[in-house]
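Co-fold these.
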Amino acid sequence: MIKKISGAVIALITATMVFFLNKPIGSIPALGMFLSPSHGFWKNTAHQDMRSATLEIQCPQGKATVVYDEIGVPHIFADNEADLMFAQGYVVAHDRLWQMEFQMHAAAGRLTELVGEKALNLDRFARRIGIVRAAETSLIALEKDPLSKKIVDAFTSGVNAYIDQLKPADLPLEYKLIGYQPEHWTPLKSALLMKYMAKDLTYHDADIENTNALRLFGQENYAKMFPDFPPPAIDPIIPVGTKWGFKSVDSFQTKKNTAQLTAQLYQNPMKHLYANPHYGSNNWAVNGSKTKSGKPILCGDPHLSLNLPSIWYEMQLSCPGMNVYGVTIPGAPGIIIGHNEHIAWSVTNSSRDVINNYSVEYQDAGRKAYKLGDTYVPFTYDVQTFKIRNGKDFIDSIRMTKIGSIVYDERFGETDDRKHIATYWRAEEPSNELMTFYYLNRAKNHQDYLAALDYFSCPGQNFVYADAENNIAIRQQGNFMLRTSTADGVFVQPLASVDVTKLKARIPNAQNPYILNPERGFCSSANQHPTDGTYPYAISGEYENYRNRVINSELTKMSGLTWEQMGQLQNNNLSLLAQEVLPSMLSYLPETLDESSQKLVKALKAWNYNADAPLEAPSYFYIWWDFVEKTAYDEMDNKNTSLRIPEAYVTATLLKNDPGFDLFDIMVTDTVETAKEVTQAAFRKTVAYFKEYEAGNKPATWQMVKNTRLTHLAMLDVFSQQEVNIGGNKNIVNATSDKWGASWRMIVDFSNGKPQCYGVYPGGQSGHPGSPLFTEFVDKWAKGEYYKLHFFTSKEEAIAAFKK
Amino acid sequence: MFLVKLLVVAIVALFLPFVAPWYSPFIACFIIGIILSNKPGNNFLAGFLGVGLVWLGYTLWLDIRNQHYLSSRIAQLFSNSLQTDISYGLLILITFLLGALLGGLSTMAGAMLVDDGSRKRLRKAVKSGSYRLKLK
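Predicted complex below.
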């Protein structure tokens, strides 16, 4: 009897142990499951390491063949486009399921379901600015077109076919670690990912900061800090002097600054959740007049947040009527950047302003209606529920106006009624961007390219183009607003003053900045101004002024080009900022300096202005430059009023040419400071900074000081990479700074009639941290090297090359 | 008898999880304990070694093929969150002990719950059942 009782007790204890080992506790996963070799993380070491392997996928209508090459790039061959999209969905899920679902959760404002309350503000922001509403609107447009519906449905079924055959033991590691299950994919989720990209590329609006700057610093200083076209010169995408051949389509459009301003100083409590406009993407195409072969070369290096798994997934998609190679965002059907047999294309961000912020005037303290025109309109409500892991649901009721939602109000970040902000975001307009890629993937010539672009609304992009027939072109494409003045959309304006019809009006696609086969033999873009001031529309935005000039001057100089030289240009580390401003900065320093200061000055004077990883001079320069900006713009360090500092180009120009500029005066002192004193004060801080830094026994090389890192999407440090050995910085062609960088480098060379492609990205094809493929490309990427990519003309050719 | 038991436990521990949850071998061990014998110590050892060795062998096979790439990162992850130093070797040891201990305990508990008389009747019932099945 005693034996039986002890037996029962032991059984009970064992069962209890199993029960608790099957449950996650805090951030510790369910340990029994997690450590068991059959279901735990050990299992994630073996599977899904796809390299030089062939896979057959049973699709709805037939079989698709997938040939993985030696670096894990799948080449998919199917008999029709629906099966091809099905197979693409299956393969992408196979290699990147966790990533695509996690990014979808971020887009949908559903991270709280995975990580709990700590993500609530992030999620609320995502839903308040309208990523979900925008995705729902674009889904309607997408499903209205039978073709795009067919494509996205097939893709969705493919993803789900993979999920359905996935056993719990084979779940990607992160599901096991965080403790959740994949859901079925839907077309809405693909739409959410596209809108998430739109948020990442357009949500860098500065209306609030501009309004505050104008109020605090006055019209004259504002014009110096944020000029429409910064002096002395800009180098736009469409070369200066190009004739437009058309007039503005609308009489209300004016380029005069006539905005009606509001009387407040505003806060931007969630500015840290805005996108960063300084990613730095480049693209260019050179025609045969510039190349050794007499055929064009197209280059593209979009820069984005550096994460693991990498944002891009590389693949070849082939079926009758289409054969395309390039990269896609896991979750999006088709190829987003790449080439086929006839054409190649790549994108950079237009950086155009597509967001308007408005101050709300309530009818009364009940906040039930807002003023629009002369009347009060009742709000509608977008009620959003947030499921919170280990917590109660949270419900956010978002006030909706005719132009968009109220992002900041008493429920979210702003207690003062007079400072509530309603936002209009162009991404919420109906659009079907998917069709752009559908038609680009199949394009044969430059008419096809232009027709494909017409579908693209938001985020505005610079699509560079080259084809085997020696044509090159670039068009800035998007659904851009017809600005009623140069101040429209630049400052917070009263919501009451909005004319909804005018707000929704657009510049016709045919009048977007565009050039075909320019005389100079190349087209290029690097997030700079699309045009000069002769373009008949106002083009507010946040533009770059360094990379474009380096690229254009190099391309102008060069001839007899080969793909290798194009690769060197993509990896060019010249800091034009330093070249232009450092001599002035050094000239502002006093004659006599102590020993530690002299060490820095000596290194800086000997520097060739290349921000290479092993050098110390770029560390000294960029830390010094940061201190110059902080010291000069000490006025911006304001807890209650959001402000932004001007572009580096503007500050550098002021520092050299306008040393007495008002803002150089340091507020806390009684004396009046100029550029000279600011530069000196910043230099003393730099010397002190490096004294402290070197006490930490780390070399002051640019690699270590900059610390370029690839961060795991769920911030898991053990799967991230730190201190990557790569040079560059923002405002440099190789715009790889601490957390942003070249997310894909591509060179398509048409020299042999057949396009030959070279590419590399900071990551690897597998999204599984247990796979050596996870970070396989990182070293090559950091060194500025490329893989020669396989573009197969037939299934048989691919199988012969890689069948095991 | 001990070796038979160990072998049965090992086979179950290796194959059952392909179709059932990670803890399924322990339920099976408990049933094996009920059917096969009532020597608790002997059963514990059979379960301990049967499951433990399978877990250890399987883990080592996976980990060595992966060149400890993932296990050292997971070890680091645990080290960070528990503020102690954990190596992949320790993870392998813990995995072994976890499987072994749960295997041993569940096999032993099964053995202790049922006395010899009922076990004989149980076996007989099982036998006659299978006998009848064969007839059909």
